## 1
Amino acid sequence: MSATVYLETFGCQMNVADSERAAVRLRGAGFGLTNSAETADVIIFNTCSVRERAAHKVFTRIGEVRRLRLAKEPIVGVMGCVAQLEGGDLFNNSPSVDLVVGTRATDRLPTLIGRALNGEQRVIDLDERAETEKWDVPATARTSKYVAFVPIIEGCNKFCTYCIVPYSRGREQSRPASEIVAEMKELRDYGYREIHLIGQNVNSYRPKTEAGLEGFTGVTPFCRLLRAAAATGMERIKFTTSFPRDFHPDIVAAIEDHENLCEWVHLPAQSGSNRVLRAMRRGHTAADYLCRIATIKNARRRIAITSDIIVGFPGETDADFRETTRLVKQVGYDALYIFKYSERSGTPAARLDDDVSQSTKTDRFLELENLQQSIQRKVYDAYVGRETRVLAERNSTKSNDDITGHSTCHKVVNFPRAFVRAGQVATVRVTEAKVNSLYGEVLSAN
Ligand code: 5AD
Ligand code: SF4
């Protein structure tokens, strides 16, 4: 019998996409995929290192698996960002690890596992992708049956001083548009109704060839890709993450022109203080950022705006933090992801004195969270009475009678499931605004 593999994923959508690709390659090589960590011959953790807590998770999980599997020890592998960064140190720090697979070695996973199963000790691959490597994942092999993630660019060249991504994911590499468009058409034909174009910084999309972009206008290659994507006829297209400095107004124009480009932009500000933004090396000021926001707000359609903020960056004073609260109030975000600064070894910011105490970080986190809640209440209340198109994704965990999904403006919307199946798109009239979700009644579904 062929060996079975249990694959567990942490972190961002890029990791989800990588795990999908890993699963396809493993099946192709004759491995069986299993949902049981208790019986699998091989256990692979696809890891995240963006903050300390995320990076630590894998060690907790390795410990749990070891306790679970005293009788027959499985092969344990670490792939993804922690693997790329820690490399061979993982073998010393965590003796149960047999296999370390970097962020660009996904396609070689079956061979690497094969070597470990044959008794080779400390198998490691931190090399680059092969030039010929294909990124595509067949529609049949997706984590979600209804929403598909389509990577368009991998890695990051920005080197924001706090961020580990340029080290864990390497330099930017864009996928040819022809490949992206072909994948979208396949997904569309298979019945997918929503896709997310993903990358650490989608605005930097810069493929080596024109293939797939011919005939599509746009000020930047990403704007052209958006229009090429819209032309596939995929019903709902979202994209994330946008980098403020490279966020061109033509992106907003593309959204205005194409109904199937969804009205949602995730544009992380990180801070509202110019001093902190400079120390973070973000390449934009608060005013530059607000200028982009104004373009988005002036669009004919209301475009939802979400953001990430880091509180407690080294040297952040109370006055700096006030600038952040000011910016958050000015924008009036639809949602905000707040993070306490987490020192990542090897980044330029790690050399700074992390002089903001944990308690101050917590205080600022809570204050910002409170502020956002009051802003969000107003934003969400304004949706009451309005109609929105929601892709039903799964039964609600809170109520047996409800189903849950996302609107085109990327809000969680719950509604009665009596007349709607997962995978259908429902027109929902919003009847109630909750803290982080909307509730509504179904007008129609198809
Ligand atoms: N500490 C805290 N938050 C971080 N992020 C990235 N690196 C760090 C760090 N070292 C946050 C940023 C980014 C999001 C994905 O994670 O806000 O936009
Ligand atoms: Fe990290 Fe900055 Fe690149 Fe985003 S743009 S992945 S925050 S370095």
## 2
Amino acid sequence: MTIIEAHNIRKSYGSLEVLHDVDLLVEEGEILGLIGPSGSGKSTLLRLLDLIEPANAGELSVFGIDTVTDRGTWLDLRRRMGMLFQRPVVFNASVYDNVAMGMRYRGAPRDEIERKVKEALEAVGLSRYIKSRALDLSGGEQQRVALSRVLVTDPEILFLDEPTANLDPTSTATIEEIVTRLNREAGTTVLISTHDLAQGQRLAHRVGVMIEGTIAQTGPSREIFREPKSQRIARFVGVQN
Ligand code: ADP
Ligand code: MG
């Protein structure tokens, strides 16, 4: 099943058009990597697909629901998705409260919250910090707290925007492991943007290369390395290789 279907998506900020006619299909259960140089539009595209902000034009269906004609669906659809940003978002509260936050907001029962928060913190290797103040942790640990907060909500689609840029190797490896396991065991669909080609190859079943506001090529990463469709793509995948 196609879980995200985007056609001719355009996005402008003021007079600057940053996405031009983006087409993208994401299949349920896949890990799709979005790679591309800085400024190519990866974060913007993720914010549109995740329904954080609207496109200026184009068609976008998520879970088979047309999001453009019916903005009333956004809140419900958003609850089925989770997003992790490049900079960890943590609040001035305990690690436990930081992770429990999303579940409380959804009105989950207290014992269920406690069970799931403990499970999630165990999965990211942070059980021993459950009572610590989240802001006292390192950047990598804070990102793992933020990931736990997303995990406890059981998202059907997980969006990761350069989640490990600036992280230490341990946190990077932990996050990659969890994403892989979540995809394999729960069948979660994952969209991850990264400027790290090696990470794209490690994690993604398929990658889309963004160049100057469009998706210039999609396919298995091996194919993109072997047969880049344009000079720009060749240069991008070549430079970092
Ligand atoms: P990437 O994530 O690939 O580095 P972005 O999506 O962050 O690229 O940015 C794409 C382009 O859009 C850049 O030129 C950036 O400056 C511009 N841009 C992104 N967000 C905004 C915004 N909120 N207001 C104005 N310009 C923006
Ligand atoms: Mg970005």
